[in-house]
Every structure is written in C-alpha cells, then in structure tokens.
Amino acid sequence: MSEEKNLNFIEEIVETDLNEGKYKSIITRFPPEPNGYLHIGHSKSICLNFGLAKKYGGSTNLRFDDTNPVTEDTEYVESIKDDIKWLGFEWSNEFYASDYFDTLFEYAVTLINKGLAYVDDSTSEEIATLKGTPTEPGKDSIYRSRSIEENILLFNEMKDGKYKDGEKVLRAKIDMAHTNMLMRDPIMYRIKHAHHHRTGDKWCIYPMYDFAHGQSDSIENITHSICTLEFIPHRELYDWLIEKLNIFPSHQYEFARLNMTYTVMSKRKLLQLVNEGHVSGWDDPRMPTISGFRRKGYTPLSIRNFCDKIGVAKRENLIDLSLLEFCLREDLNMTAKRVMAVLDPVKLIITNYEEGKTEMLTSENGPDESLGHRSIPFGKELWIEREDFMEEAAKKWFRLAPGALVRLKSAYIVKCESFEKDSDGNITAIHCTYIPESKSGQDTSGISVKGTIHWVSVKHAATAEVRLYDRLFKSENPAAEEGDFKEYMNLDSLHIINNAYIEPSLTTANLEDRFQFIRKGYFCLDKDSTTEKLVFNRTVTLKDAWSKEVKKG
RNA sequence: UGGGUUAUUGUGUAAAGGUAGCACUACAGAUUUUGAUUCUGUCUGUCUAGGUUCGAAUCCUAGUAACCCAACCA
Questions:
Q1: Are A201 and A173 in a shared domain?
Q2: Whole-angstrom Cα distance, residue A140 to residue A186?
Q3: How many domains does chain A have?
C-alpha cells in the first residue's frame, strides 16, 4: 500500500501503529540536555521528531533533560529554543524533566515499596568493582538486602540532606549477573548538593537519566520516543521501569546519529574547541553548531532539506559535507541577491573613457525576475580581481590578458592594452580601452567574448572586512583518527580580508540578507558589523570548474 | 573472551522472493553577460562462503568486519 512512499523505518512503525489503532495520534518529543549548543546532528533529530508529528498530525514537546544541575545552564536553554525556532519548528509544550522531580520521587518510593529498589552506601569505586565486566557477572552489594522500611527511611534522609555527595545512592534491584550491564542494579538517584537552574536548592538528590527519561516520556504520553543508537541497551531498562511502575507505555526507537565529514559532532569535543579558544565561541561560523551555521549564512530551509535527504536508518554513517553544501547552494541560488565585490583588488583604467564621468548602469539582482534590478555606478577607474588577469594567458583562459577582450559584468567589453608592474613584479595597474557600442543590454558591437568579470568603481566603492572560512579539520573523520582529534585541525580555516571593495548598494545590507558576490560565493553580513565597518562572512563558495581545470594542468 | 546493533557503488539511502532505483560526489558535453545556474550523458554496488528456489540484496546455515555497553553523564 505504501509502495511509492519510501518510508523510513520509523515512519513505517508510526503508520503501522496508526493503522492498527494502537494510537489515535502520535506525540513525539525533542529532549536536549541544556549543557551545550545544538549542532547539525541535533537538527536531524529535530527534523525527525517534529517532522513525524507534522506528517501524521501529532504534536511534539520540547523537553529539557535537566537532571544534572552541575553541567546545565539557562544560557543553553535559551540558545536551544532559539535554534529550534530558527529551524522553523514549534513545540506544543515546553517541559523540563525537573518539572517531574516530585512525581519521580514518588515513583522511586513506589519501587522501594515493591522491594525493587534499595539504598546503597557503597562508594562509587565499590559499586564499579561489584558491577563486574561485560564478560564477568557482577556481585550483590551487602546493602542489597535492606528492609523496605529502612530503605524508605534512608531515601527520605537522602532527600532531606542528611548525607553528603556520594555517601549513598538509590539503586533499582534487578540482576547483578544480567548480560546487559545497565540492568545490573542501575543507580536511580544520587546525592548532589548543587544549585539547579530551575529548582534552585529545593533538591539535593537528582534522578539519573534512566530514571527520568522514560518516566518523563510516559508522563507526557509520548507514543514514539526516538533516540540514537547508543541508547539501545537502555531500552530494556526503559521498559522494565515502565512495567514495574505500571505507567503509560511509551516506546523507544533508535536511529543512527548524523556524522559529517571534516568536523566533529560530540558535545565534549565542541566544548573543548570553545574552551581552548580554537574558535571564537559556540556560534563561530566554522562550528557545526546550528548557531554557527546560522551565523555563517546558512538558511533554515537548506538544513531541513539536508535532513530530508540524508534519510533515517540504523547503520553508522559519515555524510559528505558536499551534500549539505549542495542543499545550501540550491536554496541560495534561488534567493540570494547578486552583487559585486572585489576581494583582492587591482586597478583597471579605461584609457578611452571620459575622466571624472559616472554612468549609472542597470543590473539584474538575480536569475529570478522577482529579485528586481538595481543601478551600479561605473567610471574610468575600476577595481577588478587580481586573479582575473594573467600576464601570459594560459590555455583555455577566458579572462583578462594582454590583447584579450573581456566583458565587464553589466557594463562594457574592454580590451587589455597594457599593464604596469612594480619592482617586485606585482601588477599595479591594467590599462584597457572600452568598446562604447558594447554596453550591456544595448550591445550593437557584434563582438562576443568568452569571459565576463566583476568589478567595482574605484570612486564609488565602499570597503568591508570579509571573512573567508574553510573546513575546521583536514581529516574527513577527525574523531576516528589516531591520537587527539585537535591534531587534525586545519590551521588555515579562517582568512580575513581587511579591505575588500564592495559596490555601494551593500552598505545598507541587513543581518538577514543573503548575497551572492558574483563569481566569488555566497556571503552574509556578520553580527560584528558596525556602521563604520561592515563585516561579511563567506557562507560557501560557488562550484568552481576553473580551479579543477587548473589542477588538471 | 559476554551481550546488543549494523553490513547495498566514493558517500548516503530505496527495493518486504521477480528489471538493483534515487540523490550527492566524480567525469564528459551543450547553453551561459557569474568557468555559477540550467540541461544532457557516463562510471562504479548487494561483506564472504555455502544452501533453499524457476528466480535471492531479501529466506536458511556458517563465517568476517564495524559500532555500542563495565560514568553517582545524557
């Protein structure tokens, strides 16, 4: 019945559940821990969870998994909300695991009363030792046989702050010889005399992930609790707790997390890059964080399309960065306004053009008519790109060289007559003549040229700082390399151009605007911009067939 | 050496016993006032070995490889 739909395995599960009447509608959740910024991997999960609810008419909760007060902060809560909104999703409810601390405490008491939980006074080392290894069974703690009454008393004392951090824990009583390590009497509660960003100092005991997550899902009537592969072993415990507590049976499903070439995706590693100053912050445009991509000029649509294309499955993957860039260019190509900017300038002088004359030329803002037109000032002296001139033309060279003709975009065809060099051999000026009949849009010259180059009028140019970003890592998969992942960083990942020349229309650019600097790439204004100094970030380069031609030799 | 999960072209993902498809990448060509875009075309694949079947990526058996699990993290 769904032959042409090509559903992913989770959509198939949802459709089956819906068709069989297991649920009337579905509820999913996105459950970040507020201890860091969201990255592109999270956007896969966000698109999956929110996308599922949208597709099947359900709803999605945003739930902060804030069970560890020492690593969490409201700064992260705010950034996470911003990122999800920016991506274009709306949650039905904003919840916190900490909303359920009272309920969770009652659940723990229930388990104690059923003889399924006990207070253990062992140190963490003792607990680790008695836990055994994957190949050897663990051993029971001497505290495992405490009476229900004693456990209730002790657990309440834990809550009341009678004990110091680490003195006692509450554990589920399952099976110390279980083949699944997580079932060997997992810790449910630990003592942490720490200030929580939401509950303040109300609690000094906090539930572990396993004792909070499934129950939170259950409380919210989550039908499909979707997480990544490394949580597969947790599912058995997830189900065990729901069964013993006899609460709404949410179900956990696991998919493979996103990995991408030339970057790292673990929060720990990203935090390290920030803390050690390898990048300027979580939103450094080289970071794979959502805020980093946003600052770099990525669009929400491009990221959503990307998440759509990569699919959802259970095998380990390493997605080509080029697919993300394809999705980006696909979007930007349709929407970005075309403008001209010269990043590495050299002066071009039109010897037969009237001194001091300014001509306003009309240029289209993009391939789509709806983007409209603008006028650009043209004059006798122009800045052009240094790399668009070659003293001795290479084969298949379509740009400027002595004697060669080239079209100045939206202006005239010029012919290179001569050039000047300084004592170091650098080109300092190029002298051309222009063909007055070749004016763009009213060309009667009958001349056709192979190359078109961009330019900015010297007299009218504004200046700007332009930041060119490259991949942060030289290795395709730095996390999988030998040694420290930071050894594989690309030390040349940021190139700053202090004085690029930009066409005057760019001086009124806004933060949300997207531009294509013709022939140079896509750019956007950076938040560091001031009225005195504009700063542009390169979002992504254009595809470049010429550089490949050059490499071929 | 225990348990769990996964193997389809360079990458990712479809095909639920019946033509191995799609996208990205790469390559070639056409168009182009962006060496962009657009358009056309080309290349490479079912982890291995057996078996069942008219027919196997799919079912069976035995291997192999990768990843996850021994935090009072999530």
A1: yes
A2: 12
A3: 3
Both A438 and A486 in one domain: the answer is no
- ipTM tops the 0.95 cut: yes
Q: How far is the CA of A545 from the C1' of B28 (A)?
A: 13
Q: Count of CB atoms within 10 A of residue A19's CB?
A: 9
- Biggest CA–CA distance in chain A, Å, is 102
CA distance A195 to A69: 6
- Element holding A383 (H helix, E strand): strand A381-385
Q: How confident is the model at residue A465 (pLDDT cuts 50, 70, 90)?
A: very high
- Flag residues 22-81 of A with CB < 7 Å from strand B: 31, 33, 65, 67-68, 71
Closest CA to A101 of A225, A242, A199, A10: A199
Q: Is A288 helix (H, G, I), strand (E, B) or coil?
A: coil
**Structural domain contains residue A262:** no
Question: Each residue of A97-107: pLDDT tens digit?
Answer: 999 999 999 99
Q: In the block, which residue shows the tokens 């201890």? A: A35
| A313 within 8 A of A492, measured Cβ to Cβ | no
- Is beta strand A345-350 parallel, antiparallel or unpaired with respect to A427-435? parallel
Q: Is the pLDDT of residue A182 over 60?
A: yes
Amino acid at A292: G
A235 catalytic? Reply is no
CA-to-CA distance for A423 and A529, rounded, in angstroms? 37
Task: Return the H-helix or E-strand segment holding A179.
Answer: none
Which range marks the domain in which residue A396 is found? 345-454
The whole model's pTM is what? 0.96
Give the separation between CA A53 and CA A240, rounded to whole angstroms: 27
Whether any strand B atom is under 7 angstroms from the Cβ of A444: the reply reads: no
Taking only the tens place, the pLDDT of each residue in A223-234 is 999 999 999 999
Catalytic pick among A139, A198, A244, A257: A257
Average pLDDT of the residues of chain A: 96
Is residue A459 a part of any domain in this protein? no
Alpha helices in A220-266 (DSSP H): 232-245
Residues 213-272 of A with CB under 7 A from strand B: 213, 229-234, 256
Q: pLDDT (tens digit, 9 = 90+) per residue, A90-128?
A: 999 999 999 999 999 999 999 999 999 999 999 999 999
Instruction: Tell me if residue A368 falls in helix, strand or coil.
Output: coil
Backbone angles phi, psi at A237, to 5 degrees: -70, -40
- Of residues A408, A344, A333, the one with CA closest to residue A371: A333
Spatial distance between the Cα atoms of A193 and A167, rounded to a whole number of angstroms: 12
Up-side HSE of residue A265: CA atoms within 13 Å toward CB? 19
Q: Report the pLDDT value the prediction gives residue A2, as an integer from 0 to 100.
A: 33
Strand B-contacting residues in A 481-540, CB cut-off 7 angstroms: 516, 518-519
